[in-house]
């Protein structure tokens, strides 16, 4: 089905100059228990999707001609799951070679062929936030992806209407890579703050130099030459102008608090913390000054800065009023975020709606796309998942996943081998004996920056 | 209301011994043994069905009675109305207690240097006070197999109960010599050896394994003949497998390796358990025919091959069980062993079924390890490893209300819970005062 | 050097003497100078350009220029006549982008104040001022090998980092001249990051490319402001910026090496964003992109190499499961798709040419025939190697066909070159004639050397290996010791900067297969590294394996033969 759409799209001028039109579908899903997330649960309810948009939610809707009907009796329908922290579908994760690499764009290295996209769809995830890694204090700009599996053009899986976001990182990773690995600042959490303040102050000067030049340029007899160009500083200036949402890898309460202070000093309001294992200690501050935290359900103790963690983190943050989401940062976890969110019920007793919000509307808010996705509401993009069993049950099994009303995963129909690219010289398919190699990529590509064999020590978990 | 509480506290304080240390505030709740009656529960025995309105009496570390209308006598009564009693769960492959923080090498004690080190004892390195133990047991996992990693024969695994102050107090009565079966597979996307090289290397490793095995055989034969042998702890321990004192826990994952391992152990008169077995579903019939029991997991894992169906790891246990393989589950984890019930749930949902999934974390591992007389079900005479829950412990919404290990009532607290208690409503809050 | 010629299998470098233009009062005591620069190949079957039928013709050329083509040519006195009655003449092949005879210049020492986050351009692989001309050795054995395969002109890409420098078009004639046709034809670029410094990955390279481009643009603006207005600070133009100026001014295109589908898209995205002229080279997987390439009009140079068929041949018919069968089918499908790619380009009407980078000269004609078997027309195949390449490189006026006034570059073969039995007897390049031994029909195809037994490996080899940590390399040295070898290897010291050296052990040479081991000390423990490979002439192709870490491809070139 989706293959056909692409063939048709190709005929309709998916050309070099024409902006590719991504496929949009129409479907009527009938008799589901609809978990809208924002507007409560509705039993035996129909959802009509036309041209990729949710058009109607109600009872006894009938399908316009040509629109497929899917009977979802006894099943649950929820919004497509959104992962606010992923590295799936990226050819490069870390440009680790400088403490600030704001000029680097993950959109440049999106790989639509990675089978991880399909596996995420099979776990009900329709949108992932493909992030730069955590090797440097200011990493590259991230890409928000829509999982339109089968697309060959990276541009077709990039959510073009999502705002810009950028990766920051505090604590052990950037201080190890630069301070200890290469003998340049930062080596300490003090140095991390200095790198941030230096960067923003330079960005202010950069912006001023360009403003001066731009106004002088048009005047007669101008003697002001153009300043040097720096996308790095321009990007930092864009952050100061509120054009980019910061997503900051962080663990300890002190470093989280530090960045809140830096952001307040520079008037930055668009700030989300990632991982945030000790976020619970500064939950009131996170709630007051930031766009919240995106956390693991229960990961801890894999490194020293997460030793003093608690699985109740999400619940504490949420109860303190911080926007809280649960993310994966893993090609494995991304496949069962519904289950990860459900852990907030064991660790903190959140309600179904609160738990589901952590993987739908809350990450949508943190990515600045909550007006488009993240709940089942008329007018929103039709990213939907049908579940057998309630999605917060440990026995839940995703059945079908839709992006823009187009079905990309169907447990009954999809073939086993989903690889889009197969090497012509492949003799024996490689076997991945532990998920680790594939799953944990927060520090991927850092080795390219370290000397050859020394890099091997980074292979272990370093999210 | 607050008033009343305050009055009571004041009274209590007044009654307390006068020797108080000013810096120590509040009581610490320790695990305690005693006689407990878990009254009026739904008891999921695993081996003898599910019994409603049933009570369980725990005495001297054991289950002494299971039945309706048991009289409490002098037992402490725990009202379990509306709740469920299950046997404690067993995770058959972990590094729990052998590491504190995985990225801090000083705290990582599960991997020793050397290729043949069967004399390395997991039980020795268990830290009874590892933070992760307290975090794990409140989830209902009461018993785990601690497995060393490393070379070809990395050490001797040990079963431990998650309560006690010394490794011996924790020991659960099962040990096994671990073998990492040589792999003939491609090790991932960066492994660009030619097929021939892979084959050669695998043959070389197998030859090496055979040589070491023969060495152990010779050692045992000479020792049995009464010879005085030079101190050789590696062979001393390896020969325990040959003498059937200890089973061999063979870690093997790729389909072709599993088949090779079946062949390799076939003519050796030893007790064998396979562990890992990630691609067991590909050779389930062969495994079933061999009669070798399997410990498999993690269930929540990626498929081993890019071309595999997305749910290959979820469905693995179910496919093997269906073919007739006796299956137990493991997380292969350290700090995340508490997720064992969720791994089991995924296996259940993707083909194993709830009943078999429960067996895979209780009676099956007990039988595989030969400790079913003491563990793995709620039966009279067995050790009192029990959990009381508000519902199905595989479900995240279920709360675990009580945990008993060897008859000790375990306090339901740990660092995660204490941090919750302290920080849910932090004081001072937002504004400093 | 002479020895490596022989090793490469070139049997006779006949007639190719020295044709010295300026008299320097010296005769030629070597006796190798050619007697005349005027030749005629008479009465051969000539295919003057792609699509034209073969006709019996004589080709007359002098000092590298074709003087006449046809049946009734009068042959002036002093012409050396080569009877071509049973022979076939084709235009000499043009390599759209190659690296034959190119040696990467040594990296400069790191300065004392080196900071890995802001390295000097030269260390970061940004050297737009460099030129392929300086890196080219026309006497290299690689040049011989490619000429033997019919190539007479190569567009040479300098070696280096992300912007290695400017390319040049050279004729593969006599090794004693610079052989330059045109210098500074394009700016080479690729997605290779620098080891241990910024930019380290493809994403960093793209960001840095934008930065270099934009600042080079601003430098030109500054220069023009300085030239027109008083009171303007002096522009401090860097060598990088002045090197990039012809690109910014659209005088020369950027030739981007982009083998994989996504790399092609990335190069095109940069082009779209910055607006430079673009040539895509080294294309390996491009099937899905054909419509996009077509509508873009960007010239493309596809790899002449094809994937090996080892995997296909290793597929078993019997005794495999359905699942394995399905896997086999997918590999086969992928393999066949690669072979058909060129035909699809032709069908789409894209006038592509070939790049020899990464290809083996001995396989060139074989690969071409495979593409033809898979749907490429002979006309398009020949065009890709001649007229299309000439057109993309802007040298159609002088090259690409056998016509009066064009360069005397052509192939003389025993049969139609598309015929499997055809052998190249002569290659004429720049008017010099190179002769090759024509083997009897029973020979192994196109006359590649058969690796002899107990092949000699003695000498210094420069090797390169690709690992997830990036590419690295060093020197390998073997010396003969009785019947065996001893050796040493240098590699990047894992404990810091510089190179470490280790003895090589367990060296075994069997036919053209070599294996050896060495130990690397990393953090106090020795890691054994195993290398195995296959030697072909002066190159080694193999893998470097490190237990627990995996295996990585390794290539080596004999740098100084025989100590």
List keywords for this structure.
heterotrimer; B: 433 residues; alpha/beta; TIM Barrel; Urease, subunit C, domain 1; 2 domains; eight-stranded mixed sheet; 16 strands; 31% helix; C: 563 residues; alpha+beta; Lipocalin; eight-stranded antiparallel β-barrel; 26 strands; 23% helix; disordered N terminus
Q: How many beta-strand segments of chain C? A: 26
Q: Which value, in Å, is the CA radius of gyration of chain A? A: 23 Å
N-to-C CA distance of chain C? 12 Å
Coarse shape of chain C = globular
Sheet-strand content of chain C, in percent, reads 25-35%
Integer count of domains of chain C: 2
Largest sheet entry of chain C: 8 strands, mixed
Overall geometry of chain A comes to: globular
Q: What's the helix count of chain A? A: 13
Structural class of chain C: alpha+beta
Could you name the CATH homologous superfamily of the largest domain in chain C?
Metal-dependent hydrolases
Number of helical segments with 4 or more residues of chain C = 12
Overview of this protein structure:
The complex is a heterotrimer of chains A (463), B (433) and C (563). Chain A is α/β, with parallel strands linked by helices and 463 residues long. Chain A contains 13 helices and 17 strands. Chain A has helices at 2-11, 115-121, 154-157, 172-182, 189-217, 231-240, 253-265, 283-289, 313-319, 337-346, 352-357, 361-367, 435-439; strands spanning 27-35, 41-50, 53-58, 68-71, 76-79, 81-86, 125-130, 138-141, 143-146, 164-169, 244-250, 271-275, 293-295, 324-326, 384-388, 397-403, 406-410. In chain A, the strands form three sheets. In chain A, strands 1, 2, 3, 4, 5, 15, 16 and 17 form an eight-stranded mixed sheet that branches. Chain A has a six-stranded mixed sheet with strand order 8-10-11-12-13-14, sandwiched between helices. In chain A, strands 6-7-9 form a three-stranded mixed sheet. In chain A, strand 6 (81-86), helix 2 and strand 7 (125-130) form a beta-alpha-beta unit. In chain A, helix 5 (189-217) packs across helix 6 and helix 5 (189-217) packs parallel to helix 7. Chain A is globular, with a radius of gyration of 23 Å. The model of chain A is unreliable at 1-19, 435-439 and 451-461 (pLDDT under 50). Chain B is α/β, with parallel strands linked by helices and 433 residues long. Chain B has two domains: 1-16 and 89-372, Alpha-Beta Barrel (TIM Barrel), CATH 3.20.20; 31-87 and 376-419, Urease, subunit C, domain 1 (Roll). In chain B, the strands form two sheets. In chain B, strands 1, 2, 3, 4, 5, 14, 15 and 16 form an eight-stranded mixed sheet that branches. In chain B, strands 6-7-8-9-10-11-12-13 form an eight-stranded mixed sheet. In chain B, helix 8 (284-290) packs across helix 9 (312-323) and helix 10 (340-352) packs across helix 11 (354-360). The longest helix of chain B is centred in the middle third of the chain and has 30 residues, at 195-224. Chain B is globular. By secondary structure, chain C is of the alpha+beta class. Chain C has two domains: 2-92 and 445-561, Lipocalin, CATH 2.40.128; 94-218 and 246-395, TIM Barrel. In chain C, 23% of the residues lie in helices and 30% in strands. In chain C, the strands form four sheets. In chain C, strands 1, 2, 3, 4, 5, 16, 17 and 18 form an eight-stranded mixed sheet that branches. In chain C, helix 4 (202-228) crosses helix 5 (239-248). The radius of gyration of chain C is 25 Å and the shape is globular. The two termini of chain C are 12 Å apart. Chain B: Residues 1-22 form the signal peptide. Chain B: Keywords: Signal. Chain B: Residues 85-407 form the Amidohydrolase-related domain. Chain B: InterPro entries: Amidohydro-rel, Metal-dep_hydrolase_composite, Metal_Hydrolase, Metallo-dep_Hydrolase. Chain B: It comes from Algoriphagus confluentis. Chain C: InterPro entries: Amidohydro-rel, Metal-dep_hydrolase_composite, Metal_Hydrolase, Metallo-dep_Hydrolase.
């Amino acid at each position: 089905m989706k293959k056909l759409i692409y063939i048709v799209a190709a005929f309709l001028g998916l050309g070099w100059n024409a902006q590719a039109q991504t496929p949009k579908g129409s479907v009527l899903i009938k008799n589901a228990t609809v978990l809208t997330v924002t507007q409560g649960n509705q039993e035996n309810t129909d959802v009509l999707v036309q041209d990729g948009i949710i058009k109607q939610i109600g009872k006894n809707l009938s399908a316009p001609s040509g629109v497929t009907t899917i009977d979802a009796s006894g099943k649950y329908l929820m919004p497509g799951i959104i992962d606010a922290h992923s590295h799936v579908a990226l050819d490069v994760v870390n440009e680790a070679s400088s403490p600030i690499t704001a000029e680097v764009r993950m959109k440049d290295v999106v790989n639509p062929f990675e089978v991880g996209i399909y596996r995420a769809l099979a776990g009900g995830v329709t949108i992932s936030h493909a992030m730069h890694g955590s090797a440097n204090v200011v990493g590259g700009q991230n890409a928000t992806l829509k999982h339109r599996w089968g697309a060959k053009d990276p541009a077709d899986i990039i959510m073009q209407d999502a705002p810009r976001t950028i990766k920051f990182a505090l604590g052990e990773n950037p201080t190890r890579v630069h301070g200890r690995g290469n003998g340049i600042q930062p080596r300490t959490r003090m140095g991390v703050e200095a790198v941030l303040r230096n960067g923003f102050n330079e960005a202010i000067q950069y912006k001023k130099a360009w403003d001066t030049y731009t106004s002088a340029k048009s005047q007669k007899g101008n003697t002001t030459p153009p300043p040097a160009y720096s996308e790095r500083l321009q990007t930092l200036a864009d952050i100061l102008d509120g054009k980019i949402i910061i997503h900051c890898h962080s663990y300890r309460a002190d470093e989280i608090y530090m960045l809140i202070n830096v952001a307040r000093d520079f008037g930055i309001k668009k700030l989300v913390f990632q991982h945030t294992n000790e976020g619970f200690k500064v939950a009131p501050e996170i709630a007051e000054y930031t766009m919240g935290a995106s956390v693991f359900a229960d990961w801890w103790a894999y490194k020293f800065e997460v030793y003093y963690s608690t699985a109740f983190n999400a619940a504490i943050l949420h109860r303190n009023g911080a926007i809280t989401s649960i993310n994966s940062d893993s090609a494995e976890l991304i496949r069962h975020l519904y289950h990860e969110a459900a852990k907030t019920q064991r660790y903190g007793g959140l309600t179904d709606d609160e738990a589901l919000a952590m993987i739908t509307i809350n990450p949508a808010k943190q990515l600045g796309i909550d007006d488009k996705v993240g709940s089942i509401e008329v007018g929103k993009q039709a990213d939907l998942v049908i579940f057998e069993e309630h999605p917060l049950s440990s026995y839940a099994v995703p059945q079908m996943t839709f992006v823009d009303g187009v079905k990309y995963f169907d447990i009954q129909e999809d073939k086993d081998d989903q690889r889009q690219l197969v090497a012509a010289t492949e003799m024996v398919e490689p076997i991945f004996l532990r998920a680790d190699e594939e799953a944990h990529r927060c520090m991927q590509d850092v080795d390219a920056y370290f000397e050859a064999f020394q890099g091997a020590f980074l292979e272990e978990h370093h999210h | 209301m607050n008033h009343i509480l305050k009055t009571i506290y004041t009274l209590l304080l007044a009654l307390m011994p006068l020797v108080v240390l000013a810096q120590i505030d509040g009581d610490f709740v320790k695990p305690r043994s005693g006689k407990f009656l878990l009254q009026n529960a739904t008891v999921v025995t695993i081996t003898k069905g599910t019994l409603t309105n049933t009570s369980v009496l725990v005495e001297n570390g054991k289950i002494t009675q299971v039945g309706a209308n048991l009289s409490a006598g002098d037992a402490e009564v725990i009202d379990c109305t509306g709740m469920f009693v299950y046997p404690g769960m067993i995770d058959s492959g972990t590094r729990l207690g052998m590491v504190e923080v995985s990225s801090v090498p000083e705290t990582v004690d599960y991997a020793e240097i050397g290729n043949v080190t069967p004399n390395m004892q997991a039980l020795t390195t268990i830290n009874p006070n590892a933070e992760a133990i307290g975090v794990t047991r409140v989830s209902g996992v009461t018993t785990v197999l601690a497995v060393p990693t490393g070379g070809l024969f990395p050490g001797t695994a040990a079963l431990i109960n998650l309560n006690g102050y010394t490794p011996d107090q924790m020991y659960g009565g099962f040990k096994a010599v671990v073998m990492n079966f040589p792999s003939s597979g491609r090790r991932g996307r960066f492994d660009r050896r030619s097929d021939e090289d892979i084959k050669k290397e695998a043959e070389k490793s197998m030859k090496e394994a055979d040589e070491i095995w023969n060495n152990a055989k010779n050692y045992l034969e000479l020792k049995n003949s009464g010879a005085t042998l030079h101190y050789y702890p590696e062979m001393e321990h390896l020969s325990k497998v040959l003498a059937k004192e200890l089973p061999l826990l063979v870690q093997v994952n790729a389909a072709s390796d599993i088949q090779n391992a079946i062949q390799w152990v076939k003519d050796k008169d030893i007790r064998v358990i396979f562990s890992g077995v990630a691609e067991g579903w590909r050779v389930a019939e062969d495994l079933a025919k061999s009669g070798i029991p399997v410990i498999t997991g993690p269930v929540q894992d990626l498929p081993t091959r890019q071309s595999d169906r997305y749910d290959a790891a979820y469905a693995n246990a179910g496919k093997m069980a269906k073919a007739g393989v006796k299956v137990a589950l493991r997380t292969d984890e350290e700090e995340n062993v508490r997720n064992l019930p969720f791994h089991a749930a995924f296996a259940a949902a993707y083909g194993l079924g709830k009943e078999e999934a429960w067996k895979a974390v209780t009676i099956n591992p007990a039988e595989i390890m030969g400790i079913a007389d003491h563990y793995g079900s709620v039966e009279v005479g067995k050790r009192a490893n029990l959990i009381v829950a508000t519902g199905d412990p595989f479900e995240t919404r279920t709360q675990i209300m009580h945990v008993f290990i060897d008859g000790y009532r375990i306090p339901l607290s740990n660092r995660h819970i204490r941090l919750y208690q302290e920080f849910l409503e932090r004081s001072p809050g937002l504004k400093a005062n | 050097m002479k020895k490596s010629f022989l090793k490469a299998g070139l049997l006779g470098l006949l007639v190719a003497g020295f044709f010295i233009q300026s008299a320097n009062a010296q005769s030629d005591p070597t006796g190798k100078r050619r007697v005349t620069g005027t030749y005629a190949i008479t009465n051969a079957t000539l295919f003057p350009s792609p699509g034209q039928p073969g006709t019996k013709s004589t080709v007359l050329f002098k000092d590298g220029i074709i003087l006449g083509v046809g049946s009734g040519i009068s042959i002036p006195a002093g012409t050396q006549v080569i009877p071509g009655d049973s022979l076939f003449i084709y235009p000499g092949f043009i390599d759209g982008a190659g690296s034959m005879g190119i040696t990467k210049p040594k990296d400069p020492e790191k300065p004392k104040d080196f900071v890995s986050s802001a390295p000097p351009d030269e260390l970061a692989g940004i050297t737009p001022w460099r030129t392929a001309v300086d890196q080219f050795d026309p006497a290299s054995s690689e040049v011989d090998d490619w000429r033997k395969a019919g190539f007479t002109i190569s567009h040479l890409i300098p070696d280096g980092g992300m912007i290695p420098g400017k390319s040049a078009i050279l004729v593969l004639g006599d090794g004693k001249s610079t052989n330059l046709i045109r210098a500074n034809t394009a700016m080479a670029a690729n997605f290779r990051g620098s080891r241990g410094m910024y930019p380290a990955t493809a994403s960093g390279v793209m960001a840095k490319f934008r930065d270099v481009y934009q600042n080079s643009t601003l430098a030109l603006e500054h220069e023009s402001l300085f030239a027109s207005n008083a009171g303007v600070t002096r522009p401090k133009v860097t060598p990088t910026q002045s090197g990039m100026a012809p690109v910014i001014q659209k005088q020369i295109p950027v030739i981007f090496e982009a083998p994989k589908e996504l790399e092609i898209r990335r190069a095109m995205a940069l082009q779209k964003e910055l607006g430079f002229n673009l040539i895509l080279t080294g294309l390996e997987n491009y099937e899905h992109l054909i419509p996009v390439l077509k509508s873009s009009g960007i010239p493309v140079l596809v790899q002449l190499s094809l994937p090996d068929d080892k995997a296909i041949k290793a597929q078993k018919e019997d005794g495999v499961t359905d699942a394995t069968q399905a896997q086999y089918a997918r590999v086969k499908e992928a393999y066949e798709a690669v072979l058909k790619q060129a035909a699809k380009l032709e069908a789409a009407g894209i006038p592509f040419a070939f790049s020899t980078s990464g290809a083996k000269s001995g396989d060139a004609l074989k690969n071409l025939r495979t593409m033809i078997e898979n749907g490429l027309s002979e006309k398009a195949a020949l065009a890709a190697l001649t007229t299309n390449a000439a057109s993309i490189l802007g040298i159609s006026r002088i090259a690409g066909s056998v016509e009066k006034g064009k360069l005397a570059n052509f192939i003389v073969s025993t049969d139609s070159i598309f015929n499997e039995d055809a052998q190249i007897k002569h290659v004429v390049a720049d008017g010099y004639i190179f002769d090759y031994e024509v083997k009897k029909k029973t020979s192994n195809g196109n006359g590649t050397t058969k690796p002899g037994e107990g092949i000699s490996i003695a000498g210094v080899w420069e090797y390169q290996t690709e690992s997830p940590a990036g590419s690295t390399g060093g020197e390998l040295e073997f010396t003969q010791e009785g019947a065996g070898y001893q050796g040493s290897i240098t590699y990047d010291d894992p404990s810091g900067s510089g190179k470490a050296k280790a003895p090589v052990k367990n060296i075994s040479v069997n036919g053209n297969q070599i294996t050896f081991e060495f130990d690397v000390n990393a953090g106090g423990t020795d890691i054994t590294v195993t290398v195995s490979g296959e030697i072909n002439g002066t190159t080694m192709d193999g893998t470097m394996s490190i237990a627990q870490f995996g295996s990585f491809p390794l290539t080596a070139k004999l740098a100084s033969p025989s100590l």
